[in-house]
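call fold(seq) -> C-alpha coordinates
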Amino acid sequence: MTIDGIRHVVDSGLARVARYDAERGISTLFLEPISRASADQRAGRAGRTAPGTCHWLWTESGHLNRPDRNTPEIQRSDLAETVLLLHSLGIKNAAQFDWLDKPDPQAVERAENLLRTLGALSSSATSSSSDLTRTGREMLRLPMHPRYSRMLVEAAKHNCVAAAALCSALVSGRDLLMRLGRDDKHIAEARELFEASADSDFYTLMRAWQFAKNNQFNTERCRRYGVHAQIARQVEETYQQILKMAESRGSKVEGRTENAASLDSPPSAFDPLLRCITAGFIDQLCKRRDQGTLDCDLTEGRSGTLMRESVVQNSPLFVVASIREVTGRTGNMTLLGLATAVKREWIEEMFAEQITTRIEHLYDRTHKRVAAIKLIRFHDLVIHFEHEREIDAEASGRCLAEAYAKQYFELPQFNHELKQFIARVNLVAAAMPELDLPPFEAKAIGESLTKAFAGMTLVKEAQAAPLRDAIIGQFGKDKLDWLNELAPLTITWHDDRKLKLLYPDQPRDEDGEANSPELQVKLTECFALKEHPHICEGKVPVKLWLCSPDGKRIESTFNWPAFKANTYPKLKPTLQRKFPGNTWI
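ret:
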Protein backbone atom coordinates (compact mmCIF):
# COMPACT_ATOMS: atom_id res chain seq x y z
CA MET A 1 0.00 0.00 0.00
CA THR A 2 1.35 3.44 -0.98
CA ILE A 3 0.42 6.41 1.23
CA ASP A 4 1.23 9.85 -0.16
CA GLY A 5 3.42 12.03 2.02
CA ILE A 6 5.23 9.28 3.93
CA ARG A 7 8.93 10.27 4.07
CA HIS A 8 10.21 8.61 7.24
CA VAL A 9 9.63 5.24 8.92
CA VAL A 10 10.58 4.30 12.50
CA ASP A 11 10.47 0.50 12.91
CA SER A 12 10.46 -1.23 16.32
CA GLY A 13 11.26 -4.54 14.64
CA LEU A 14 8.36 -6.30 16.36
CA ALA A 15 5.04 -7.69 15.19
CA ARG A 16 2.09 -9.50 16.73
CA VAL A 17 1.95 -12.94 15.12
CA ALA A 18 -0.98 -15.33 15.46
CA ARG A 19 0.17 -18.85 16.20
CA TYR A 20 -1.96 -21.93 16.70
CA ASP A 21 -0.82 -24.23 19.47
CA ALA A 22 -1.77 -27.66 18.12
CA GLU A 23 -1.03 -29.37 21.41
CA ARG A 24 -3.55 -27.30 23.39
CA GLY A 25 -5.85 -26.15 20.62
CA ILE A 26 -5.36 -22.46 21.42
CA SER A 27 -4.61 -19.57 19.06
CA THR A 28 -2.42 -16.95 20.70
CA LEU A 29 -0.95 -13.63 19.60
CA PHE A 30 2.78 -13.49 20.27
CA LEU A 31 4.99 -10.41 20.13
CA GLU A 32 7.92 -11.55 17.98
CA PRO A 33 10.89 -10.00 16.13
CA ILE A 34 10.14 -9.57 12.44
CA SER A 35 12.21 -11.21 9.72
CA ARG A 36 14.71 -9.40 7.53
CA ALA A 37 12.30 -9.62 4.60
CA SER A 38 9.59 -7.89 6.66
CA ALA A 39 12.06 -5.22 7.75
CA ASP A 40 12.91 -4.48 4.11
CA GLN A 41 9.22 -4.38 3.25
CA ARG A 42 8.48 -1.95 6.07
CA ALA A 43 11.37 0.25 5.00
CA GLY A 44 9.77 0.43 1.57
CA ARG A 45 6.83 2.37 3.01
CA ALA A 46 9.07 5.46 2.91
CA GLY A 47 10.41 6.97 -0.25
CA ARG A 48 7.66 5.69 -2.56
CA THR A 49 6.84 9.12 -3.96
CA ALA A 50 9.94 11.06 -2.80
CA PRO A 51 13.28 10.44 -1.06
CA GLY A 52 12.90 9.16 2.53
CA THR A 53 14.60 7.44 5.47
CA CYS A 54 13.99 4.42 7.70
CA HIS A 55 15.24 4.01 11.28
CA TRP A 56 15.60 0.45 12.59
CA LEU A 57 15.54 0.30 16.38
CA TRP A 58 17.83 -2.70 16.73
CA THR A 59 21.53 -3.47 16.30
CA GLU A 60 23.26 -4.54 13.13
CA SER A 61 24.32 -7.84 14.74
CA GLY A 62 20.74 -8.38 15.87
CA HIS A 63 19.61 -7.83 12.29
CA LEU A 64 21.95 -10.55 11.02
CA ASN A 65 20.54 -12.99 13.59
CA ARG A 66 16.94 -12.48 12.44
CA PRO A 67 15.38 -15.13 10.15
CA ASP A 68 15.46 -14.46 6.41
CA ARG A 69 11.69 -14.80 5.97
CA ASN A 70 8.54 -15.12 8.01
CA THR A 71 7.21 -18.54 9.01
CA PRO A 72 4.71 -19.68 6.34
CA GLU A 73 1.17 -19.12 7.57
CA ILE A 74 0.23 -22.76 6.99
CA GLN A 75 2.80 -23.75 9.62
CA ARG A 76 1.27 -21.54 12.31
CA SER A 77 -2.46 -21.57 11.55
CA ASP A 78 -5.50 -23.70 12.30
CA LEU A 79 -5.74 -26.14 9.37
CA ALA A 80 -9.30 -27.39 9.86
CA GLU A 81 -10.74 -25.77 6.71
CA THR A 82 -7.84 -26.93 4.53
CA VAL A 83 -7.96 -30.48 5.89
CA LEU A 84 -11.72 -30.67 5.25
CA LEU A 85 -11.08 -29.78 1.61
CA LEU A 86 -8.38 -32.46 1.33
CA HIS A 87 -10.72 -35.12 2.71
CA SER A 88 -13.38 -34.08 0.20
CA LEU A 89 -10.81 -34.86 -2.51
CA GLY A 90 -10.32 -38.37 -1.13
CA ILE A 91 -7.12 -37.67 0.82
CA LYS A 92 -7.89 -39.41 4.12
CA ASN A 93 -4.47 -38.97 5.68
CA ALA A 94 -3.76 -35.27 5.30
CA ALA A 95 -0.48 -35.56 7.21
CA GLN A 96 0.94 -37.66 4.33
CA PHE A 97 -0.11 -35.12 1.71
CA ASP A 98 2.71 -33.60 -0.36
CA TRP A 99 2.49 -30.08 1.07
CA LEU A 100 4.48 -27.25 -0.49
CA ASP A 101 5.35 -26.02 3.04
CA LYS A 102 4.86 -29.05 5.27
CA PRO A 103 2.88 -28.14 8.43
CA ASP A 104 3.32 -29.69 11.84
CA PRO A 105 1.81 -33.22 11.72
CA GLN A 106 0.31 -32.58 15.15
CA ALA A 107 -1.58 -29.57 13.77
CA VAL A 108 -2.96 -31.72 10.93
CA GLU A 109 -3.98 -34.43 13.38
CA ARG A 110 -5.74 -31.90 15.62
CA ALA A 111 -7.59 -30.50 12.61
CA GLU A 112 -8.82 -33.99 11.70
CA ASN A 113 -9.88 -34.63 15.28
CA LEU A 114 -11.83 -31.36 15.30
CA LEU A 115 -13.62 -32.34 12.08
CA ARG A 116 -14.54 -35.73 13.55
CA THR A 117 -15.82 -34.04 16.69
CA LEU A 118 -17.94 -31.64 14.63
CA GLY A 119 -19.36 -34.62 12.76
CA ALA A 120 -17.76 -33.79 9.40
CA LEU A 121 -15.62 -36.92 9.19
CA SER A 122 -16.56 -40.49 9.87
CA SER A 123 -14.20 -42.79 11.73
CA SER A 124 -15.79 -45.95 10.32
CA ALA A 125 -15.34 -45.33 6.58
CA THR A 126 -13.74 -48.13 4.57
CA SER A 127 -10.61 -47.59 2.51
CA SER A 128 -12.66 -47.41 -0.70
CA SER A 129 -15.37 -45.04 0.54
CA SER A 130 -15.19 -41.38 1.41
CA ASP A 131 -14.91 -40.52 5.09
CA LEU A 132 -16.86 -37.28 4.59
CA THR A 133 -20.25 -37.48 6.30
CA ARG A 134 -23.47 -35.89 5.08
CA THR A 135 -22.91 -33.07 7.56
CA GLY A 136 -19.35 -32.72 6.29
CA ARG A 137 -20.54 -32.40 2.68
CA GLU A 138 -22.99 -29.69 3.72
CA MET A 139 -20.22 -27.87 5.62
CA LEU A 140 -17.97 -28.07 2.57
CA ARG A 141 -20.48 -25.99 0.58
CA LEU A 142 -19.81 -23.05 2.91
CA PRO A 143 -16.25 -21.72 2.37
CA MET A 144 -15.52 -20.70 5.95
CA HIS A 145 -13.99 -22.20 9.08
CA PRO A 146 -15.68 -25.54 9.87
CA ARG A 147 -16.89 -24.26 13.24
CA TYR A 148 -19.01 -21.60 11.57
CA SER A 149 -20.14 -23.79 8.69
CA ARG A 150 -21.24 -26.40 11.27
CA MET A 151 -23.24 -23.68 13.04
CA LEU A 152 -24.98 -22.73 9.80
CA VAL A 153 -25.71 -26.35 8.89
CA GLU A 154 -27.40 -26.81 12.25
CA ALA A 155 -29.15 -23.44 11.93
CA ALA A 156 -30.70 -24.49 8.62
CA LYS A 157 -32.54 -27.26 10.49
CA HIS A 158 -34.03 -24.78 12.97
CA ASN A 159 -34.70 -21.79 10.71
CA CYS A 160 -32.23 -19.47 12.43
CA VAL A 161 -29.58 -19.10 9.73
CA ALA A 162 -29.53 -15.31 10.05
CA ALA A 163 -28.82 -15.37 13.78
CA ALA A 164 -26.12 -18.01 13.33
CA ALA A 165 -24.56 -15.96 10.52
CA LEU A 166 -24.45 -12.93 12.80
CA CYS A 167 -22.72 -14.97 15.53
CA SER A 168 -20.17 -16.15 12.98
CA ALA A 169 -19.50 -12.56 11.95
CA LEU A 170 -19.18 -11.41 15.56
CA VAL A 171 -16.33 -13.83 16.33
CA SER A 172 -14.52 -13.72 13.00
CA GLY A 173 -12.81 -10.38 13.72
CA ARG A 174 -11.65 -8.24 16.60
CA ASP A 175 -13.53 -7.75 19.88
CA LEU A 176 -16.70 -5.70 19.47
CA LEU A 177 -16.83 -4.55 23.10
CA MET A 178 -14.17 -2.45 24.76
CA ARG A 179 -12.29 -3.89 27.69
CA LEU A 180 -13.45 -2.27 30.89
CA GLY A 181 -11.00 -0.49 33.16
CA ARG A 182 -11.40 0.25 36.84
CA ASP A 183 -12.72 3.76 36.17
CA ASP A 184 -15.19 2.80 33.43
CA LYS A 185 -18.22 2.73 35.73
CA HIS A 186 -20.45 4.51 33.22
CA ILE A 187 -19.62 2.03 30.47
CA ALA A 188 -20.11 -0.88 32.87
CA GLU A 189 -23.56 0.37 33.79
CA ALA A 190 -24.43 1.05 30.17
CA ARG A 191 -23.33 -2.45 29.16
CA GLU A 192 -26.00 -3.94 31.40
CA LEU A 193 -28.42 -2.78 28.73
CA PHE A 194 -27.01 -5.47 26.44
CA GLU A 195 -26.87 -8.26 29.05
CA ALA A 196 -30.45 -9.42 28.77
CA SER A 197 -29.80 -13.17 29.02
CA ALA A 198 -27.67 -15.42 31.21
CA ASP A 199 -27.67 -18.11 28.52
CA SER A 200 -25.02 -16.79 26.15
CA ASP A 201 -22.45 -14.04 25.78
CA PHE A 202 -23.36 -14.02 22.10
CA TYR A 203 -26.67 -12.39 22.99
CA THR A 204 -24.73 -9.55 24.62
CA LEU A 205 -22.66 -9.07 21.47
CA MET A 206 -25.71 -9.26 19.21
CA ARG A 207 -27.57 -6.62 21.20
CA ALA A 208 -24.47 -4.40 21.29
CA TRP A 209 -24.17 -4.72 17.52
CA GLN A 210 -27.88 -3.94 17.10
CA PHE A 211 -27.42 -0.86 19.28
CA ALA A 212 -24.55 0.34 17.08
CA LYS A 213 -26.56 -0.30 13.95
CA ASN A 214 -29.60 1.56 15.32
CA ASN A 215 -27.31 4.52 15.94
CA GLN A 216 -25.86 4.42 12.42
CA PHE A 217 -22.51 3.26 13.90
CA ASN A 218 -21.97 6.69 15.44
CA THR A 219 -18.46 6.63 16.90
CA GLU A 220 -19.05 8.89 19.89
CA ARG A 221 -22.34 7.34 20.99
CA CYS A 222 -20.97 3.82 20.61
CA ARG A 223 -17.90 4.74 22.64
CA ARG A 224 -20.06 5.91 25.56
CA TYR A 225 -21.58 2.43 25.65
CA GLY A 226 -18.26 0.63 25.26
CA VAL A 227 -18.83 -0.48 21.66
CA HIS A 228 -16.26 -0.21 18.87
CA ALA A 229 -18.24 1.49 16.12
CA GLN A 230 -15.77 0.63 13.36
CA ILE A 231 -15.73 -3.05 14.30
CA ALA A 232 -19.53 -3.07 14.45
CA ARG A 233 -19.58 -1.71 10.88
CA GLN A 234 -17.16 -4.46 9.82
CA VAL A 235 -19.40 -7.06 11.49
CA GLU A 236 -22.33 -5.76 9.44
CA GLU A 237 -20.34 -6.22 6.23
CA THR A 238 -19.18 -9.72 7.18
CA TYR A 239 -22.69 -10.64 8.26
CA GLN A 240 -24.15 -9.66 4.90
CA GLN A 241 -21.45 -11.62 3.07
CA ILE A 242 -22.19 -14.77 5.10
CA LEU A 243 -25.91 -14.39 4.49
CA LYS A 244 -25.41 -14.10 0.73
CA MET A 245 -23.11 -17.10 0.81
CA ALA A 246 -25.67 -19.17 2.73
CA GLU A 247 -28.53 -18.09 0.45
CA SER A 248 -26.54 -18.82 -2.70
CA ARG A 249 -25.99 -22.36 -1.51
CA GLY A 250 -29.64 -23.06 -0.84
CA SER A 251 -29.99 -22.17 2.85
CA LYS A 252 -33.34 -20.58 3.65
CA VAL A 253 -32.81 -17.37 5.61
CA GLU A 254 -35.77 -16.57 7.82
CA GLY A 255 -36.43 -14.23 10.68
CA ARG A 256 -33.18 -12.34 10.21
CA THR A 257 -31.88 -11.33 13.67
CA GLU A 258 -34.72 -9.33 15.18
CA ASN A 259 -35.58 -11.88 17.88
CA ALA A 260 -32.02 -12.59 18.99
CA ALA A 261 -30.67 -9.04 18.83
CA SER A 262 -33.73 -7.12 19.94
CA LEU A 263 -33.11 -4.58 22.70
CA ASP A 264 -36.68 -4.80 23.92
CA SER A 265 -37.42 -8.48 24.51
CA PRO A 266 -34.93 -10.89 26.09
CA PRO A 267 -34.21 -14.11 24.15
CA SER A 268 -35.69 -17.41 25.30
CA ALA A 269 -33.69 -20.19 26.90
CA PHE A 270 -35.20 -22.50 24.26
CA ASP A 271 -33.83 -20.43 21.38
CA PRO A 272 -32.47 -22.93 18.82
CA LEU A 273 -29.53 -20.58 18.26
CA LEU A 274 -28.02 -21.97 21.49
CA ARG A 275 -28.00 -25.44 19.92
CA CYS A 276 -26.29 -24.07 16.81
CA ILE A 277 -23.53 -22.41 18.84
CA THR A 278 -23.11 -25.66 20.77
CA ALA A 279 -22.70 -27.58 17.51
CA GLY A 280 -19.96 -25.25 16.30
CA PHE A 281 -17.90 -25.20 19.48
CA ILE A 282 -18.64 -28.64 20.94
CA ASP A 283 -14.92 -29.50 21.14
CA GLN A 284 -14.59 -26.61 23.62
CA LEU A 285 -17.19 -27.99 25.98
CA CYS A 286 -16.60 -26.89 29.58
CA LYS A 287 -17.87 -28.05 32.92
CA ARG A 288 -17.75 -25.92 36.06
CA ARG A 289 -15.95 -27.67 38.90
CA ASP A 290 -18.39 -26.19 41.40
CA GLN A 291 -20.57 -23.11 41.79
CA GLY A 292 -18.08 -21.46 44.13
CA THR A 293 -15.38 -21.04 41.50
CA LEU A 294 -14.98 -20.04 37.87
CA ASP A 295 -12.47 -22.85 37.26
CA CYS A 296 -13.58 -25.32 34.61
CA ASP A 297 -12.59 -28.63 33.08
CA LEU A 298 -12.56 -29.09 29.31
CA THR A 299 -12.17 -32.04 26.98
CA GLU A 300 -8.71 -33.53 26.36
CA GLY A 301 -7.76 -32.99 30.00
CA ARG A 302 -7.59 -29.21 29.59
CA SER A 303 -8.63 -26.65 32.18
CA GLY A 304 -9.32 -22.94 32.27
CA THR A 305 -11.10 -20.12 34.06
CA LEU A 306 -14.31 -18.52 32.87
CA MET A 307 -13.95 -14.77 32.41
CA ARG A 308 -15.70 -12.73 35.09
CA GLU A 309 -17.36 -10.58 32.41
CA SER A 310 -19.29 -13.59 31.12
CA VAL A 311 -23.04 -13.64 31.79
CA VAL A 312 -23.05 -17.46 31.84
CA GLN A 313 -22.35 -17.72 35.56
CA ASN A 314 -24.96 -20.27 36.63
CA SER A 315 -24.79 -22.96 33.97
CA PRO A 316 -22.75 -26.03 34.98
CA LEU A 317 -22.21 -26.97 31.34
CA PHE A 318 -21.33 -24.61 28.49
CA VAL A 319 -19.23 -24.16 25.36
CA VAL A 320 -16.80 -21.29 24.77
CA ALA A 321 -15.87 -19.63 21.51
CA SER A 322 -12.72 -18.02 22.88
CA ILE A 323 -9.79 -19.68 24.62
CA ARG A 324 -6.73 -17.54 25.15
CA GLU A 325 -3.70 -17.71 27.37
CA VAL A 326 -2.52 -14.67 29.31
CA THR A 327 0.44 -14.14 31.58
CA GLY A 328 -0.33 -12.89 35.07
CA ARG A 329 1.45 -12.46 38.35
CA THR A 330 1.02 -16.13 39.22
CA GLY A 331 2.06 -17.41 35.78
CA ASN A 332 0.15 -18.37 32.65
CA MET A 333 -3.61 -18.49 32.85
CA THR A 334 -6.14 -19.88 30.36
CA LEU A 335 -9.19 -17.62 30.05
CA LEU A 336 -12.49 -18.89 28.65
CA GLY A 337 -14.73 -16.34 26.95
CA LEU A 338 -17.88 -16.04 24.82
CA ALA A 339 -19.67 -18.78 26.71
CA THR A 340 -23.01 -20.36 25.81
CA ALA A 341 -25.05 -22.52 28.19
CA VAL A 342 -25.55 -26.11 27.04
CA LYS A 343 -28.13 -28.72 27.91
CA ARG A 344 -26.88 -32.29 28.12
CA GLU A 345 -29.82 -33.48 26.02
CA TRP A 346 -28.57 -31.43 23.06
CA ILE A 347 -25.19 -33.14 23.16
CA GLU A 348 -26.74 -36.59 23.42
CA GLU A 349 -29.00 -35.79 20.46
CA MET A 350 -26.47 -34.15 18.10
CA PHE A 351 -23.33 -36.13 19.05
CA ALA A 352 -24.73 -39.45 20.27
CA GLU A 353 -21.85 -41.46 18.77
CA GLN A 354 -19.34 -39.50 20.85
CA ILE A 355 -21.12 -40.13 24.17
CA THR A 356 -19.95 -43.02 26.36
CA THR A 357 -21.66 -44.40 29.45
CA ARG A 358 -19.81 -46.43 32.04
CA ILE A 359 -20.42 -47.50 35.62
CA GLU A 360 -17.40 -46.83 37.80
CA HIS A 361 -16.74 -47.35 41.48
CA LEU A 362 -15.35 -44.21 43.08
CA TYR A 363 -14.07 -43.56 46.57
CA ASP A 364 -15.81 -40.80 48.52
CA ARG A 365 -13.20 -39.30 50.86
CA THR A 366 -15.82 -37.28 52.75
CA HIS A 367 -18.04 -40.21 53.67
CA LYS A 368 -15.23 -42.80 53.57
CA ARG A 369 -17.07 -45.23 51.35
CA VAL A 370 -17.26 -46.57 47.81
CA ALA A 371 -20.09 -45.52 45.52
CA ALA A 372 -21.10 -47.04 42.20
CA ILE A 373 -21.70 -44.18 39.77
CA LYS A 374 -22.85 -44.20 36.17
CA LEU A 375 -20.66 -41.66 34.38
CA ILE A 376 -21.79 -40.11 31.10
CA ARG A 377 -18.87 -38.65 29.15
CA PHE A 378 -18.44 -36.57 26.05
CA HIS A 379 -15.01 -37.79 24.95
CA ASP A 380 -13.09 -37.68 28.26
CA LEU A 381 -15.22 -35.02 29.99
CA VAL A 382 -17.83 -36.20 32.49
CA ILE A 383 -21.02 -34.29 31.69
CA HIS A 384 -23.41 -36.17 33.99
CA PHE A 385 -23.40 -38.84 36.67
CA GLU A 386 -25.99 -40.94 38.51
CA HIS A 387 -25.61 -43.11 41.62
CA GLU A 388 -26.29 -46.82 41.19
CA ARG A 389 -27.72 -49.09 43.85
CA GLU A 390 -25.98 -52.28 42.79
CA ILE A 391 -22.30 -52.68 43.71
CA ASP A 392 -19.86 -54.94 41.88
CA ALA A 393 -18.00 -56.88 44.58
CA GLU A 394 -14.61 -57.00 42.82
CA ALA A 395 -14.79 -53.39 41.62
CA SER A 396 -15.65 -52.08 45.09
CA GLY A 397 -12.76 -54.06 46.59
CA ARG A 398 -10.37 -52.67 43.98
CA CYS A 399 -11.59 -49.15 44.67
CA LEU A 400 -10.87 -49.52 48.40
CA ALA A 401 -7.44 -50.98 47.63
CA GLU A 402 -6.60 -48.02 45.36
CA ALA A 403 -7.81 -45.59 48.02
CA TYR A 404 -5.48 -47.22 50.56
CA ALA A 405 -2.59 -46.98 48.08
CA LYS A 406 -3.26 -43.22 47.88
CA GLN A 407 -3.07 -43.07 51.70
CA TYR A 408 -6.69 -41.99 52.10
CA PHE A 409 -7.00 -44.21 55.17
CA GLU A 410 -4.92 -46.54 57.34
CA LEU A 411 -5.15 -50.32 57.78
CA PRO A 412 -4.42 -51.54 61.32
CA GLN A 413 -4.47 -55.13 60.04
CA PHE A 414 -1.64 -54.35 57.62
CA ASN A 415 0.77 -54.92 60.47
CA HIS A 416 4.50 -55.41 60.93
CA GLU A 417 4.29 -59.13 60.18
CA LEU A 418 2.76 -58.54 56.74
CA LYS A 419 5.13 -55.72 55.88
CA GLN A 420 8.09 -57.90 56.83
CA PHE A 421 6.73 -60.74 54.70
CA ILE A 422 6.55 -58.44 51.67
CA ALA A 423 10.07 -57.11 52.38
CA ARG A 424 11.44 -60.68 52.58
CA VAL A 425 9.88 -61.67 49.26
CA ASN A 426 11.24 -58.56 47.55
CA LEU A 427 14.73 -59.10 48.98
CA VAL A 428 14.88 -62.68 47.70
CA ALA A 429 13.67 -61.49 44.27
CA ALA A 430 16.43 -58.85 44.21
CA ALA A 431 19.24 -61.04 45.55
CA MET A 432 18.46 -64.20 43.59
CA PRO A 433 17.09 -63.23 40.16
CA GLU A 434 17.83 -66.72 38.87
CA LEU A 435 14.83 -67.97 40.85
CA ASP A 436 12.40 -65.83 38.76
CA LEU A 437 10.48 -64.95 41.90
CA PRO A 438 8.12 -62.06 41.08
CA PRO A 439 8.54 -59.15 43.53
CA PHE A 440 5.65 -58.27 45.78
CA GLU A 441 5.20 -54.69 44.57
CA ALA A 442 2.31 -52.21 44.51
CA LYS A 443 0.38 -54.15 41.86
CA ALA A 444 0.56 -57.44 43.79
CA ILE A 445 -0.37 -55.69 47.03
CA GLY A 446 -3.34 -54.08 45.28
CA GLU A 447 -4.53 -57.42 43.93
CA SER A 448 -4.26 -59.01 47.37
CA LEU A 449 -6.17 -56.18 49.05
CA THR A 450 -8.79 -56.28 46.28
CA LYS A 451 -9.52 -59.90 47.19
CA ALA A 452 -9.60 -59.10 50.88
CA PHE A 453 -12.01 -56.16 50.38
CA ALA A 454 -14.30 -57.82 47.81
CA GLY A 455 -17.93 -56.80 48.41
CA MET A 456 -17.06 -54.13 50.98
CA THR A 457 -18.00 -50.47 50.56
CA LEU A 458 -17.05 -48.85 53.88
CA VAL A 459 -13.58 -47.99 55.17
CA LYS A 460 -14.42 -49.37 58.60
CA GLU A 461 -15.19 -52.72 56.96
CA ALA A 462 -11.83 -52.71 55.19
CA GLN A 463 -10.00 -51.77 58.40
CA ALA A 464 -11.53 -54.74 60.20
CA ALA A 465 -10.90 -57.22 57.38
CA PRO A 466 -8.27 -59.97 58.04
CA LEU A 467 -5.43 -59.54 55.55
CA ARG A 468 -3.05 -62.36 56.41
CA ASP A 469 -4.68 -64.99 54.22
CA ALA A 470 -5.03 -62.57 51.31
CA ILE A 471 -1.31 -61.68 51.38
CA ILE A 472 0.58 -64.61 52.89
CA GLY A 473 -1.98 -67.32 52.16
CA GLN A 474 -1.65 -67.00 48.39
CA PHE A 475 2.02 -68.07 48.64
CA GLY A 476 1.22 -71.65 49.56
CA LYS A 477 2.97 -73.85 52.14
CA ASP A 478 5.77 -75.03 49.84
CA LYS A 479 6.73 -71.53 48.75
CA LEU A 480 6.44 -70.25 52.31
CA ASP A 481 8.83 -72.94 53.58
CA TRP A 482 11.20 -72.06 50.79
CA LEU A 483 11.01 -68.35 51.73
CA ASN A 484 11.62 -69.11 55.41
CA GLU A 485 14.78 -70.95 54.45
CA LEU A 486 16.18 -68.23 52.17
CA ALA A 487 15.05 -65.20 54.15
CA PRO A 488 14.25 -66.37 57.70
CA LEU A 489 12.50 -64.24 60.29
CA THR A 490 15.22 -65.13 62.82
CA ILE A 491 18.76 -66.45 62.87
CA THR A 492 20.27 -68.79 65.42
CA TRP A 493 23.03 -67.10 67.45
CA HIS A 494 26.13 -68.90 68.66
CA ASP A 495 24.48 -69.42 72.07
CA ASP A 496 21.38 -71.01 70.41
CA ARG A 497 19.23 -67.91 70.91
CA LYS A 498 16.78 -66.93 68.15
CA LEU A 499 17.37 -63.29 67.18
CA LYS A 500 14.86 -61.41 65.01
CA LEU A 501 15.94 -59.86 61.73
CA LEU A 502 14.52 -56.56 60.52
CA TYR A 503 14.09 -56.45 56.75
CA PRO A 504 14.23 -53.03 54.99
CA ASP A 505 11.27 -51.69 53.00
CA GLN A 506 13.44 -51.16 49.90
CA PRO A 507 14.93 -54.38 48.48
CA ARG A 508 17.91 -52.55 46.92
CA ASP A 509 20.31 -49.93 48.23
CA GLU A 510 21.48 -46.78 46.43
CA ASP A 511 24.03 -48.78 44.43
CA GLY A 512 21.41 -51.26 43.22
CA GLU A 513 22.68 -54.07 45.44
CA ALA A 514 20.45 -56.25 47.60
CA ASN A 515 19.59 -54.41 50.81
CA SER A 516 20.65 -56.41 53.86
CA PRO A 517 18.37 -57.12 56.82
CA GLU A 518 19.47 -55.66 60.15
CA LEU A 519 20.26 -57.26 63.51
CA GLN A 520 21.03 -55.28 66.64
CA VAL A 521 23.34 -57.01 69.17
CA LYS A 522 25.71 -55.99 71.92
CA LEU A 523 29.36 -55.92 70.91
CA THR A 524 30.31 -58.16 73.82
CA GLU A 525 27.93 -60.84 72.50
CA CYS A 526 29.82 -61.06 69.23
CA PHE A 527 33.22 -62.08 70.57
CA ALA A 528 32.37 -65.77 70.26
CA LEU A 529 31.10 -65.27 66.68
CA LYS A 530 33.40 -67.04 64.22
CA GLU A 531 31.65 -66.17 60.93
CA HIS A 532 29.47 -63.28 59.82
CA PRO A 533 25.80 -64.34 59.42
CA HIS A 534 24.35 -64.44 55.89
CA ILE A 535 20.97 -65.21 54.26
CA CYS A 536 19.88 -66.17 50.71
CA GLU A 537 22.33 -69.09 50.61
CA GLY A 538 25.22 -66.89 51.69
CA LYS A 539 24.65 -64.15 49.09
CA VAL A 540 23.41 -61.40 51.43
CA PRO A 541 25.27 -60.50 54.65
CA VAL A 542 23.25 -59.43 57.65
CA LYS A 543 23.90 -55.86 58.72
CA LEU A 544 25.02 -56.07 62.35
CA TRP A 545 24.42 -53.03 64.51
CA LEU A 546 26.97 -53.34 67.30
CA CYS A 547 25.85 -51.76 70.56
CA SER A 548 27.51 -50.80 73.82
CA PRO A 549 26.48 -52.55 77.08
CA ASP A 550 23.87 -49.81 77.69
CA GLY A 551 22.22 -50.55 74.33
CA LYS A 552 23.46 -47.55 72.33
CA ARG A 553 24.61 -48.16 68.80
CA ILE A 554 28.35 -47.92 68.16
CA GLU A 555 28.87 -48.92 64.54
CA SER A 556 27.52 -51.28 61.90
CA THR A 557 29.35 -53.94 59.96
CA PHE A 558 28.76 -56.39 57.15
CA ASN A 559 31.93 -58.33 57.98
CA TRP A 560 32.42 -59.14 61.67
CA PRO A 561 35.86 -60.83 61.39
CA ALA A 562 37.26 -57.78 59.53
CA PHE A 563 35.66 -55.40 62.04
CA LYS A 564 37.10 -57.36 64.97
CA ALA A 565 40.58 -57.33 63.45
CA ASN A 566 40.71 -53.72 62.20
CA THR A 567 38.14 -51.44 63.85
CA TYR A 568 37.59 -52.97 67.30
CA PRO A 569 41.19 -52.40 68.53
CA LYS A 570 40.71 -48.66 67.97
CA LEU A 571 37.45 -48.62 69.94
CA LYS A 572 38.59 -50.87 72.77
CA PRO A 573 40.39 -48.25 74.95
CA THR A 574 37.37 -45.96 74.92
CA LEU A 575 34.98 -48.80 75.73
CA GLN A 576 37.17 -50.01 78.60
CA ARG A 577 37.12 -46.55 80.18
CA LYS A 578 33.37 -46.11 79.79
CA PHE A 579 32.39 -49.67 80.76
CA PRO A 580 35.07 -51.00 83.12
CA GLY A 581 32.78 -53.68 84.52
CA ASN A 582 32.65 -55.56 81.20
CA THR A 583 35.18 -57.95 79.74
CA TRP A 584 36.83 -56.54 76.62
CA ILE A 585 38.92 -59.21 74.98
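The chain has four domains: 8-131, 146-350, 416-486, 490-578.
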